[in-house]
Amino acid sequence: MVGVKEKISRPLAVFDLDGTLADTAHRQRFLESKPRDWDAFFAAAAQDPPLAEGIALARQSAQDCEVVYLTGRPERCRRDTEDWLAAQGLPDGRIWMRRNDDRRPARRTKLEILRRLARNREIRVLVDDDELVCEDAERAGFRVVRARWAAASAALRDAQEREGRT
Fold it and tell me: Ranges for the Polynucleotide kinase PNKP phosphatase domain (predicted)?
């Protein structure tokens, strides 16, 4: 059994979900329509196939780090997200989600949470597919692994940056 002190002192490995651990390609169509169908986009997340590279990296990271999840998904998706992570056999870890009414760009919300986490813990790595999040995190001094194993989506990138939805 891991002692409390040992668990607290372990560094954090911070993983994004969409495009990093979860393949969102099947639900991109909901972002390509006008208006965008956000309810359908997030409802379909429960059926996301796992991205093997991200899943393997999260499992490997759990050997030396406490794994936590940092997503732009809104809080209303928490139950589906917890169920999806468990179904993939991913390490247990806290899930940091966007408030339902928070429409700030992902790079702002995620960097804010990273800085908050770094006050009390070493962050060993952030793994994310959003280039703007990665660039801002690197500028702030965080070690970043860019998740480039999923097909990029212009609609999702626009949603992350301009609409603050994921």
Answer: 14-145
